[in-house]
Design goal:
Blueprint lengths: L1 H27 L19 H14 L8 H10 L3 H16 L9 H23 L1
Helix pairs in contact: 3-5, 4-5
Protein name: Ubiquinol-cytochrome C reductase hinge domain-containing protein
Organism: Kwoniella dejecticola CBS 10117
Subcellular location: Mitochondrion inner membrane
Length: 131
């Protein structure tokens, strides 16, 4: 009989520790429901005109952003000032794609030269337009 008394006590202790653990987990980790119905909060609008005025004000506040001049300036620099670097890069690309280069060759160095040249050319012009 003594064993029967110990078994329920151990069972109760195990349930308490499990519920303690589950309550701690549920405290720190929120429960997510797969298909919970969406709560729609639609306040009762007494003045329909006020909401229309707010919508119009928001549209007026949203101004069109001016076009970014940087891509055009960078393209111009690439075609004029950095034409020699671009030529070397394209030649390297053609050589690698044709399989005439050495194994593992890539054109990263030439690409960096093109980017550096374009950045050096375009940066002063772009910042001049921003000022």
């Amino acid at each position: 009989m003594a064993m029967n008394n110990q078994a329920p006590a151990a069972l109760v202790e195990n349930q308490e520790s499990t519920s303690l653990f589950s309550s701690l987990v549920s405290f720190f980790v929120p429960t997510a429901h797969a298909e919970a119905p969406e709560e729609s909060e639609e306040p009762a609008e007494e003045g329909g005109e006020d909401s229309e005025e707010k919508d119009e004000e928001e549209e007026e506040e949203e101004e069109e952003e001016p076009e970014d001049p940087a891509p055009a300036i960078r393209e111009e620099c690439e075609q004029k000032t950095c034409a020699e670097h671009v030529h070397h890069f394209k030649h390297c690309q053609e050589k690698v794609e044709a399989g005439n280069g050495f194994p593992g060759e890539d054109c990263v160095e030439e690409f960096f030269h093109v980017l550096h040249c374009v950045d050096q050319c375009a940066a002063p012009k772009i910042f001049k337009k921003l000022a």
